[in-house]
Amino acid sequence: MGILRLWFGLEARVDRRTYAASGFGLVALKYAIDAAFVYLVAHRIWTPLHYLNPFFSVRNRELGSRNVLGLMVVIALPFLWIGFSMTVRRALDAGRSPLLSLLYFVPGVNYVLMLVLCCLPTREGEPWRPQPATPEVDDAMRAALLGIAAGLGIAVAMTLFSVYVLHGYGSALFLGTPVVIGATSAYLYNRTKQRSLGASLGVAVLAISIAGGSILVFGLEGLFCLAMAFPIAAGGAILGALVGRMVARGSGAPAQLAIVLFALPLLAGAESRLQPPAAGEVRSAIEIDAPPERVWPNVIGFSELPAPEEWMFRIGVSYPQRARIEGRGVGAVRHCEFSTGPFVEPITTWDEPRRLSFDVTAQPAPMEEWSPYRHIAPPHLDGYLRSRRGEFRLIALEDGRTRLEGSTYYELEMFPAPYWAFYSDHLIASIHGRVLRHIKRLSER
Predict the structure, then answer these.
(1) At the N or C end, where does the chain have fewer CB atoms within 10 A?
(2) DSSP character for 327?
(3) Considering only the top CATH level, what class is 278-444?
(4) CB distance 342 to 331 below 8 Å
(5) How far apart are the first and last CA of the chain?
(6) Cα separation, 256 vs 190, whole angstroms
(7) In the sheet where 341-351 sits, what is the strand order?
(8) Mean pLDDT, the chain, whole residue set
(9) Over the range 271-300, which residues count as b (16 or more CB within 10 Å of their CB) and which as e?
(10) What are the boundaries of each domain within the chain?
């Protein structure tokens, strides 16, 4: 019981000897458990280098089994709490700010922090006080850190479970998780004393922001996706904080939060199987001072496009570079080369020079994510925005001109679909504009 209070509580003193013994011992235990699961389920040797690698996208790709990764996520959660809670108390015992403990969630830096805390002596003249005597700031700081830590644990666990185990980006992740983070962090912040609404909302938004930063530094997602998701997440966290603050002094609140926490992964599992993808179409058009017969050859294939000037293409969104076709008529295959790879487009309608339709049987990633690391592979880049087919229509106008229309039909598997469709429609329309303007230039020469 004493060991459990030391590891899972917030009151027991943690000196450097206790911190080092628990830290090194638990690291060895965690590695042994991970290695055993990987060997038994995936039949692979899990080396210490694999264990120290913080990037779950890399682990997911190397293991090739979402069941193994799911088990590893569940096992990691109690170790994550033990490490953070003991780091907070070790920092206080050494006379350092508890804010220093947030570095525990930064890959690479966390090991340096732990080594430093193993060396710092207990601060003389300031006996350990598990419950700070009346300094209001210390009590508020402790409550805020506890709320932020709980929110961070929920965020990382749900991201790993939803994305890397269930392969889903549904309402449980984008809406339910931020609300639960906000409610949990605000509840813990107001648990011992009712605090101001502004401070409670600030803790909730800070919790969701730090969670996003941790997801970035652990290589789970890139900056571009996190920036687009932040308005939804922050709104959900604020809504949850309002609820969490109100129930902080109500009876049964911990039980209610526990029910919600257990229901969240169940919701994620259900919607990953039941939620159908949303379908969309983006249509663009341009008028060209050339007849359809002269435009047609530049539709089925076109030369190298100039370097992009649009800001979205400069920050990593995939853009078209050239197109070529193999064969002629229905059954021919068009290859549209993008900055991240080729689209493979078998021709389904060849009505020269009026209409060209094609399916999309292979496509590259829609963007290269911004990250502190050179290569990450967040799952949302693979198949969650899928182009299904496309079409060009050439309409003859007066005076030998042509109206060229382009359509892309796609599917989107991210919640909420209208929100993400706003970005995807703008992205696809920008790609259309780049291609149509190039065809116009080539045809009017």
Answers:
(1) N
(2) S
(3) alpha beta
(4) no
(5) 83
(6) 16
(7) 278-288, 402-412, 385-396, 355-359, 341-351, 333-338, 320-326
(8) 83
(9) bbeeeebbebebebebebebbbebbbebbb
(10) 2-123+135-274, 278-444
